[in-house]
Amino acid sequence: MAWARRMVEGRGVRPPEKTLYWWSVHPERFPAFCRKAGPGSSQIPEIAARLFWESFRGDSDREKFASKQVRLALDVIL
Fold first, then answer.
1. pLDDT value for 16
2. Which long-range contacts (CB under 8 A, 24 or more apart) does 16-20 make?
3. Which residues does 26 contact at the CB level (< 8 Å), separation at least 6?
4. Partner of 22 for a Cys bridge, out of 18, 50, 58, 69, CB 3.0 to 4.6 A?
């Protein structure tokens, strides 16, 4: 999580600790998602990011929170 904190502080952003945790988790999960999806999945990062984000969508509060955090993390990465 320290790398996520340094990255956002460098951009002048100070999110809550819970958000920093999610931002540090999802960047690691995104490449794993692309590897599992196959070699063509990361040729267009925006499409891969959208598919990754959509994989977290659901109706429960937990899924909604995870989806929001994934979206924020992808905004920081891309």
1. 83
2. 19/69, 19/72
3. 69, 70, 73, 74
4. 69
Map the chain to HEC letters.
CHHHHHHHHHCCCCCCHHHHHHHHHHHHHHHHHHHHHCHHHHCCHHHHHHHHHHCCCCCCHHHHHHHHHHHHHHHHHC
Report the amino acid identity of residue 15: P
Give the CA angle between residues 42, 74, 26 to the nearest 5°: 85
Q: What is the pLDDT of residues 15-73, one digit of tens each?
A: 788 877 877 776 677 778 878 877 776 677 778 877 877 777 778 888 888 777 777 77
Task: Compute the C-alpha angle 45/65/1, nearest 5°.
Answer: 70
User: Of 28, 37, 33, whose CA–CA distance to 56 is shortest?
Assistant: 33
